[in-house]
Write a structure and sequence with these properties.
With about 500 residues, the chain is mainly alpha-helical. Helix content is about 60%, strand content about 5%. It has a 4-stranded mixed β-sheet, with helices on both faces. Helix 3 links the parallel strand 2 and strand 3. Helix 7 runs antiparallel to helix 11 and helix 19 runs antiparallel to helix 21.
Length: about 500
């Protein structure tokens, strides 16, 4: 018998008749049950729970008026009840926890957990922690003839307003993605155990909070977070063993690799569920990339525009690209000539003399990127500009082999390998379009500076780790869909040059 069953049986057999005979009509206004702190209120109690604040007991909730008039008498009657029942008890009360059971004022009980003197109505009223809401909506109400206590309870159990729930879901996606799909890996690369362990726990915590939100169930105190998630119908039973694998991952052989694979599997399952529930339209493996789609479903514009970190008007893709090109051109126009030019032909790069052509080609490239990658790269450019660092100077200096690489990210090789293969396939498929273009690869460092591979690699080295990871994940998405970024780029380019398709452009090029 668990604690909740014990307490209900205790009330029915040891207390109900006494209270009804003693207080008669008053009991028509008294709610009885067990709700609040304690493992037994969640149904999670076990033999280890019985050493404190556990045992035969229950709560009596009354209106403020009745509490002021009858509270002491009701409590005296409660205190006189048997302290043991079915071999359990007496209840050992921890210091400061004397008010968990016994007689309570309904409004004071809910105010303790919500901070409100009335049921929540506005969006502002609902800024209550899930832990507190879990505490005042758990357990069981044995009886409530007046209905006042249950009315509060019903309002809270209807869950957060949908717009606020969406914001919380987006927060979880952002925090889980940052922890498990970004910072965790940085900790591995730097051999930093604190970062990897903290990111692991943070990832699992945010994923569990997300599952509670999808189930419209309040997430409890961390001690019961994992225990409760397995009981939830949406993703709960499916993800709980995977979460356990992540948390235990580094104790196994190849632990970090197991952790990474399992975290990515969890993310895929979460994203698939978000798609099923109609919360995202994107098919991107990075959780944080789904935040704009989720927030876009918030209907209350006033609420959306007051959220911390959310701009009142998010620029569209072309607007982001416009900002990128403005900074890039500013940097490109001030690149040191030696670093920017072919060592065989010193002087200004050809593109400087044709800004429209520069912007046409760069736009085609960026149109093949997702908005999250574009925003990350825009932040790279803004940060570099603020620090008086010219990313174009760095890129061309690397192409000329004038400086050593400053970026050892594994994503540079991964992205380069995929995109060179795409470019090779595209060159074979559309030889006329590509005639006179960059060589695919080969040559000597500092001499074959204009090859596609060298240009790409040196540009990638100028990106931040966050931009590289976002771009890599997008290349994986394209691969899974059987698409090629080279084709996506040139589709935009030939369309901007007046052709209807790649095939038309290929057919109209001279031999």
């Amino acid at each position: 018998m668990n604690g909740l069953e014990l307490c209900e049986a205790y009330y029915n057999e040891c207390a109900k008749e006494i209270f009804e005979q003693t207080f008669k009509s008053l009991m028509e206004r008294v709610a009885i049950g067990l709700v609040g702190p304690g493992s037994e209120c969640f149904g999670f109690d076990d033999e280890y729970s019985r050493d404190h604040d556990w045992g035969p007991s229950f709560c009596l909730w009354v209106t403020r008026e009745d509490f002021q008039r009858y509270g002491k008498e009701l409590q005296a009657c409660y205190n006189a009840l048997p302290k043991e029942y079915l071999g359990f008890g007496p209840r050992v009360v921890s210091p400061g926890e004397e008010g968990r059971v016994g007689v309570m004022d309904i409004s004071s009980f809910y105010a303790r957990y919500t901070g409100l003197d009335k049921r929540p109505f506005s969006m502002r009223d609902w800024h209550i922690s899930s832990e507190n809401l879990a505490l005042c909506t758990n357990g069981r109400v044995f009886s409530d003839p007046l209905g006042e206590f249950s009315s509060w309870r019903t309002t809270l159990l209807e869950f957060y307003p949908e717009d606020l729930r969406l914001k919380k879901i987006a927060d979880c996606c952002m925090l889980a993605g940052q922890a498990g799909q970004y910072n965790w890996q940085r900790g591995i690369l730097r051999n930093d155990p604190y970062v990897t362990h903290t990111a692991t726990v943070k990832f699992c915590t945010e994923i569990m909070h997300l599952v509670y939100l999808l189930n419209k169930t309040y997430a409890p105190f961390y001690k019961w977070l994992f225990r409760g998630v397995a009981q939830l119908p949406i993703l709960g039973a499916e993800l709980s063993p995977l979460i356990a694998q992540v948390l235990n991952g580094q104790s196994q052989n190849d632990g970090w690799k197991n952790q990474q694979d399992t975290m990515e599997m969890i993310c895929r399952k979460v994203i698939a569920e978000l798609q099923t529930l109609g919360l995202t339209d994107d098919n991107i493996p990075f959780l944080a990339d789904h935040v704009p789609s989720i927030l876009g479903r918030i209907k209350n514009t006033e609420f959306k525009n007051t959220l911390w970190g959310v701009e009142k008007k998010t620029p569209d893709k072309k607007g982001i690209i416009k900002q990128i090109l403005e900074i890039e051109w500013e940097m490109f126009s001030t690149v040191n000539d030696k670093a920017a030019s072919d060592p065989r032909n010193q002087g200004q790069p050809t593109c400087r003399d044709f800004p429209d052509e520069f912007k046409l080609h760069r736009t085609a490239t960026f149109m093949a990127w997702p908005e999250t990658t574009l925003l990350s790269y825009l932040e790279d450019l803004k940060g570099a500009k603020q620090n008086n660092r010219n990313l174009m100077t760095y890129k061309y200096a690397r192409m000329d082999n004038l400086i050593h690489s400053e970026n050892n990210s594994p994503y540079v090789d991964k992205i380069t390998g995929v995109m060179v293969q795409w470019q090779k396939e595209f060159m074979a498929k559309y030889p006329r379009i590509m005639a006179g273009g960059r060589a695919l690869s080969g040559g000597e460092a500092g001499i074959d500076w204009a090859s596609f591979e060298n240009y790409l690699r040196c540009e990638l080295e100028s990106y931040s780790e966050n931009t590289l990871k976002s771009l890599f994940l997008h290349t994986e998405t394209l691969k899974d869909a059987g698409k090629s970024m080279s084709e996506e780029i040139y589709k935009t380019l030939v369309r901007d040059k007046g052709y209807n398709s790649l095939e038309e452009a290929e057919g109209k090029q001279s031999n």
